[in-house]
Every structure is written in C-alpha cells, then in structure tokens.
Amino acid sequence: MWLIAINPTSGHGRGAVFGERVISFFASRNLQYQVFSAPSAKELRRVIESHLNNQSCEGIISVGGDGLAHLILQIAVPRNLPFAIVPAGTGNDIVRSLGFSLTEIERYLEQVVSSAPRSIDLGNVDSEWFAAILSTGFDSVVNERANSLTWPRGPQRYNVAIALELPKFKPLEYHITTDTETFSTEAMLIAIGNGRSYGGGMLVCPHAQINDGLFDVMILEPVSKFEFLKVFPKVFSGSHITHPAVRTFRTKKISLHADAIAYADGERIGPAPISAECVSNAALTWTL
C-alpha cells in the first residue's frame, strides 16, 4: 500500500492536477494506494498518522509544495518510511537538491515503484526535521510579514513584504557555536543548508550536498541597503558567496542565540535560540 498525500491548492491548483497524474500512474499499474487530503496541515498529519498506526505502507508520496514535503518528513522519518516528493508548489526547493524537475514526474514515479530508495541527510532543528534550508534574519522577517498579508497572493506577496521591511531592517546580533568555534557577529541573513536553495531557486548555499554529513552555512554580514539590493540578485546564480561581506563554512552542528525568528523549508520554526544538527542517512527517498 502506498500513501499519496495531496495538497490540491498548492502551486495555484497545480497540486490537484499533479495529484491526478500520480493517481493515474498508480491505478494504471494496479498498485495499491490510498489518497489523503485535508483542509489543514494539522488535520492531514492526524489522519495519516492514525492510518499508519494501524496499517503498514511501502512509502509516502507528497504531491504539493515544500510545506507539504516538510510535513511528510515529520511523519515518515521517525517511522523509517521512504518518501517521494512530486513538486507541485511555487518553490519546490527540496526536489532541486534531489535532482529532478516538473517535466520528469512519470519517469520519477517509475523509479519510485521499481527501485530501492537511497538514504539522504536531513537537518534537525530542535527536534523538527528539514531537508533544504534553515534560515534567520532578513528573509525570516520577510516571511513573517508576508504571512500576515492578505493581498497580493502568491510570490508577489513576498515582493511586497521585501519592499515593506527592507527600509527599516537592521542587522541582528548573533552568538554562534559550531563544531569548532564560538563567536559573535552582526548579520543580515544566516542560511544553514542541507540543500542548496530556497525561495524558488535562490542558491543561497550553492555547494551544499544532501549526502556529505555537513551543513553549508552562509552568513551575510552588514551591508548598506543599496549594497544589499546589488548582492541579492546574485543569490539566483550562487555567485553572492564571493562578496566580501559573505562568510561561508561547513559544520555538523550549530546553535544560534539572537533576538530573531527562524524558518526551515519555508515553515516557521520559531524564535531563537535554536540548535541544529545535520543527521547523516536520516531519511530514505528516491532521486533521478
């Protein structure tokens, strides 16, 4: 039995369309499956966990955005269940590190049902699993503001939030402990990468790998607002890491103390202090 979790509203309705493709794939091969959807993440988690308490399954298929995939991690990893992600959101950053695109869904599903999954690393922040990026600083401030806006919808909401928050944003003071050192720094943004990207393809940690047992950490130290606007577009190519105000390093564990909010995989973790660890071979999934 396969579990198919669908968020039909993700990606402006793409979740429903891709959900039908996934269901058709399983039905055409006479594979046993059960579909789960719910009006809220909390309810979806409840019904899936209730099902798994009484029945085994071969794996969980997440059809939606990074938010749904993040939720499925919390269900699958403690049970050592393999999971697959069909990217149907607006960001889809987790699958970028897994190595496939929207055009390869059926080929990906064929691999899911015909081959063994492989292990990947995950981050764990205060007992919550994440696959891509844990971040704090300006991007988290923008997330907080964007989540409070009722208009506009979609990616434009974040552009509006950036315009509202950047003029008044000030660098934050962080006290940081890694595998090898403890230090303090002011920063505009800190990204802790198990994967490479967030925000729909921003390569904030361009050299991160999901099987090296380490986080790639990127710290943007204070720059002027004008310089920030110059540096920011470079994140889409990953070339921002050559800027003199950008510091990068690798570590297995990291803790942050600051008057700041943290997000992981685009989901709110909460206020610092936070502690995170890169856990080797934490999850089972499929890649192309």
From TrEMBL:
Residues 1-129 form the DAGKc domain. InterPro entries: ATP-NAD_kinase_N, Diacylglycerol/lipid_kinase, Diacylglycerol_kinase_cat_dom, Lipid_Phosphate_FormReg, NAD/diacylglycerol_kinase_sf, YegS/DAGK_C. The keyword GTP-binding does not apply. SUPFAM superfamilies: NAD kinase/diacylglycerol kinase-like. GO terms for biological process: phospholipid biosynthetic process. It holds the Pfam family DAGK_cat. GO terms for cellular component: plasma membrane. This is Unannotated protein. Keywords: ATP-binding, Kinase, Lipid biosynthesis, Lipid metabolism, Magnesium, Metal-binding, Nucleotide-binding, Phospholipid biosynthesis, Phospholipid metabolism, Transferase. Its cofactor is Mg(2+). One of its GO terms (molecular function) is ATP binding. The keyword Lipid metabolism applies. PROSITE patterns: DAGK.
